[in-house]
Design a protein that fits this description.
alpha+beta; Alpha-Beta Plaits; five-stranded mixed β-sheet; 42% helix
Length: 109
């Protein structure tokens, strides 16, 4: 199962962590894993490209773990842009969870 932990400070998402494997299909055909990966890595790429910032990232090379944290020194404008991206990511992950809840769980801290 994929576990997603979203950490908020006040109204802002400041980090997220994804851990585990969906195991909803054979390797290379796991649609839940592919969807969650595409959504999360798309959000990270958008942070780089649209917000012109480098988040703190920790991941393992064989998959199954991703941690992303926003830098503490972001301007209010950049934080607002980053949170729109991250909130959109959460909505997409929640859509996956609604349809495939036996393979992905999202929690908030």
């Amino acid at each position: 199962m994929i576990h997603v932990q979203i950490k908020k400070q006040k109204e802002n998402i400041i980090s997220f962590e994804m851990d585990g494997h969906a195991n909803s299909g054979p390797y290379g055909y796991d649609l839940v894993c592919a969807a969650a990966s595409a959504v999360s890595f798309g959000a990270v790429n958008a942070l780089f490209s649209l917000c012109k910032m480098t988040p703190i990232i920790d991941k393992n090379d064989d998959g199954g773990y991703l941690y992303v944290e926003l830098p503490a020194d972001l301007s209010d404008e950049t934080m607002q842009k980053a949170n729109i991206i991250l909130e959109a990511m959460v909505v997409s992950l929640q859509t996956i969870e609604q349809n495939y809840g036996q393979f992905i769980k999202i929690s908030f801290e």
